Amino acid sequence: MKLFENIFKFNGGIQAETHKAISTAETIKKFGIPKKIILPLRQHIGRLAKINVNIGDYVLKGQLIANADGNVSAAIHAPTSGYIESIEKLPIPHPSGLPDFCVVIITDGKDTWVDKKPIDWKKIGYQKTVELLISSGIVGLGGATFPSHLKLTKKDHGAKLTTLIINAAECEPYITCDDMLMRERIDELIKGINLLHDFLEFEESIISIEDNKLDAIEKIKKAIINEKNISLKIVPTIYPSGDAKRLIYLTKGIKIPKNTRSSELGIQMFNVATIVAIYRFLEFGEPSLSRIITITGNIKKPRNYEVLFGTPLEEIITDAGGQKINNQTFIMGGPMMGFALPSIQVPVTKAMNCIISAETEMLKNDAPVLPCIRCARCAEACPVELQPQELYWFSKSKQLDKVEEYNLFDCIECGCCSYVCPSNIPLVQYYRFAKSEIIEERQHQEEANIARERNEFRLSRLEREKIERAERNAQRRAQTSSDEKSKLVEEKRKAIQEAMARVNKEGDNSL
Amino acid sequence: MISNQSPFVQDTTSVSYIMFLVLVALIPGILVHCFLFGYGILFNIITATITVLIAEYLILKARNYPVKPFLTDYSAIVTAWLLAVSIPSIAPWWIIVVGSLFSIIFAKHFYGGLGSNLFNPAMVGYAILLISFPAIMTKWPSAYASVSFGEELKLFFFGISNYDAIASATPLDYLKTELLLNKNIDQVLAEPIIKANPLIWVGIAYLLGGIFLIYKKIITWHLPLTYLLTLFLVASLFSLANPNNFAPFYYHLLNGGTFLAAFFIITDPVSGPTTPKGKIFFAFMVAMLVYLIRIFGGYPEGIAFAVIFMNICVPLIDKLSQPKVFGHD
Question: What value of ipTM does the predicted structure carry?
Answer without folding.
Answer: 0.89
